[in-house]
Design goal:
With about 220 residues, the chain is mostly helical. It has seven helices and four strands, in the order H-E-E-H-H-E-H-E-H-H-H. The radius of gyration is 29 Å and the shape is extended.
């Protein structure tokens, strides 16, 4: 009961331009939250309309008086004579955790948000589901009616089985595991390079120190 289908008003064919934080938050409140099981985990990518912040840090567009007000609210000391670049630097260096509007909304309903790393859509099972749906709709090329496409979308989502969902999730888990393994190999290689480099440096230092000692001895005997 949470499916949202709409006709794009964009001529570019990119439906993302129709979505904004206001529409997304409204959909979240009216359709997602009422249908979520208790204590769910929501996988969220970093689209701009997912990432609107509460109490966002000041930016170059923020007025000086508002920057000072923000710093005061967060009990961050500053000199009142400071100019805007200095104030912004203090705000930037402050340990102020990002709080996203949708994350806070879901947390208030005892749900947890799991945000994906940037540019890692392959770690979201919904991408595989969406690929299946689009593929199934694209197969019906005999009727190009937009209404028919809409009906097919609704039908495909309605009949998407739990087993298919599980397969998508398991596939993502395998991808995630492969990333962990690759990261581990990279760490081992980097460590081995560092160790080798350190040994070579030690050996090099040892080699260069010996002639100095001999020269000192020769100089001493000569004196």
């Amino acid at each position: 009961n949470a499916l949202l289908i709409f006709k794009s008003k964009q001529q570019t064919g990119d439906y993302h331009n129709d979505m904004n934080s206001e529409n997304f938050t409204k959909w979240l409140q009216t359709q997602i939250l009422p249908n979520l099981p208790p204590r769910s985990v929501i996988v969220m990518d970093n689209a701009s309309y997912h990432s609107v912040q509460n109490d966002k840090k000041p930016t170059t567009r923020t007025l000086v008086k508002d920057i000072k007000e923000w710093l005061n609210e967060h009990h961050i000391p500053f000199d009142n004579k400071m100019r805007k670049p200095e104030l912004l630097l203090i705000a930037k260096r402050s340990h102020h955790e990002k709080v996203y509007v949708v994350d806070q909304l879901l947390k208030e309903h005892e749900h947890e948000v799991l945000r994906l790393p940037p540019y890692h859509a392959d770690l979201n099972p919904i991408e595989l589901v969406w690929g299946d749906i689009k593929g199934a709709v694209a197969q019906d090329m005999s009727n190009e009616s937009l209404n028919r496409k809409r009906e097919l979308c609704i039908e495909q989502f309605k009949n998407y089985s739990v087993e298919k969902w599980k397969n998508c999730c398991n596939h993502v888990l395998k991808i995630e595991q492969s990333y962990w393994q690759t990261d581990g190999l990279v760490d081992e290689v980097i460590d081995s390079i560092i160790i080798t480099s350190s040994n070579e440096d030690s050996s090099s230092n040892s080699d260069t120190s010996e002639p100095d000692t001999d020269m000192e001895a020769e100089d001493s005997s000569a004196v």
